[in-house]
Every structure is written in C-alpha cells, then in structure tokens.
Amino acid sequence: MHLDELRILLLSERETGRLVHIQRDLFVSAGKSLEELYTSLYAIADPFSEEARVLIERITAIKETLSDLYRIRAEKILSLARTQEEGSYIDREELKKLLPEEKDMFDQVVLSLEQARCRLVEGVLPRGSPHQGKERDGEPCATVISPDLQDLPRFVVSRVLQDMDPFMGVDGRIYQLQREDLVTLPERNAEVLCERNIVLNINPGK
Fold this sequence. Notes:
Layout: H1 3-15, H2 26-42, H3 50-85, H4 92-95, H5 100-120, E1 155-160, E2 167-168, E3 174-175, E4 182-186, H6 187-195, E5 199-201
Antiparallel strand pairs: 1-4, 1-5, 2-3
C-alpha cells in the first residue's frame, strides 16, 4: 500500500459524509509496508543520513494517514450506531462498506447504547427498589417495570434472523428489522417474532 494511495482514500473519506469503499486488507497491507520501511531503516548504518531521514518521514506520514483514516471512519460508524439504536432508517449499503473489525465495533457500540438506554431511561427505578433490574453475568439488561409502571412494556435484546417489513411495537416505536441486527424489542413483540423464527431472544424476560 503506497502513501499516495492512502492519501487519496483519506481525501475521499473527508469529502463525503458516507463511508468509502476500501479494500478489506488495507490496514494489513499498510502494516506490511511499514515493516518493510522499518527493515530498510534499521539496515542503514548512519541513522542521521539523508536516506534515513527520508524513510523516517515516510513512515511517519503513513502512520499519520492511517490514524486519520481510522478516526474519520470511526466517527461515521459511531453516527451509524446511534441511528441504528434509535430505530431510525439506516442504509444497509453503508454497513456493507465496514471492515470486519469495524463491523464488530459497530455491533458493540449499538449494544452498549441499548444497554445504557435500558438501564437509564426505560428501566428507571428508585435506588434499592426490589423491582430494580440487575445485569446478570455481563448480559444486557431487560427493563424491569415497577408496579406503578405496569402500563409500559418490558424490553429484551434480540438478534434478527431475517428481514421483515417495518412494524409498530407495543411501545409506539416503528421498528425496521434487518437480518443480523441486534435490537432491543418490547417483550411482547419479541415473543411473537421469536415464535415465528424471525428473531432470537438473547435475554428473554423471566
């Protein structure tokens, strides 16, 4: 991976609000290029020579370009994760542009946001309440409803097994489920979808 190619990709990534298609082994390829440059640098007898200076500048430029490329893509991925967690429309073509490591990051961020929403918004209970929800062995929490909140639905985390048309949940939100999504669904909706083999409930209500 040449420095000029990296700079072109970085420029493209900066100029658009959408993710840019990059080769799946881009960072691995760039890493190999850095290894070769370091090997050449270590082989130079005089570390203060012009040849050494040029190699150091090239190594620094590649590392900085990779860092900037990662940072910009990470910001876009975080934005996509927030949109996904909020249940808003998300372009599936964008997710296809993610590298495997980026897809893992996206999934983890979405799950973390859903867990936080579950604990802080949809499961707000007085401290010490016998109905207060607890996280079990690191698993995502399901919203536990106190007696005075029985009119609100419980929630569970589910993995979507197949695409389906948008629908309104018992909580009044519109859900657009796509295969491999990890979503927080009202328990009543999740049970029905699980019976139809549309979702797999990760932490079904007890």
